[in-house]
Write the structure tokens for this entry.
Amino acid sequence: MAADERLEMTSTPARPGRGTGPVGVSFSSLWLRLAGLCSGTTAGVDAVLAVVAWLATGPAAAGSVAFAAVVVIAFFAISLLVGHFVGRRNPAGAIGMFAVVYLIKIIGFAALLIWIGTPAWIDPPWFGAAGIVTVVVWQAIELWGFSRVRLQIFNDPEEPGQAGSPTPGATPGGPRG
């Protein structure tokens, strides 16, 4: 199964016992699929970066890369998990909740990092580089994943003629003369 098909919500039927939206599409799997895809990709990139850091600078640099990766992956995965739980009950509200949680996380993680301070073993250049690389890779994969998703937020329009809609090209109010 291609990556495009895995993320496309209309490509797989809902699993039995799972919440479904209109047309039998499971909304809950979208967020978990994105979390898994983003986490796996960024962890792989960070593992390569940690090996490079180890070879270039030493074990403290590799540990700094790993610590930065864990912090960033946790930071972004929380939003996708909230999207998963909110999206099951209110698919249209999941994106809004996603944004609210993002703001809360920024404040929370900033406070946490200020509170714990900088551990003595951290290699600042490698920690910063790994943080930036992880954020960029995560965001790129997440944007790619969201671009492949088809979420129906609004109801389909009524059949033509049922809602009294004018025919295409007709002037409202009738012919003018």
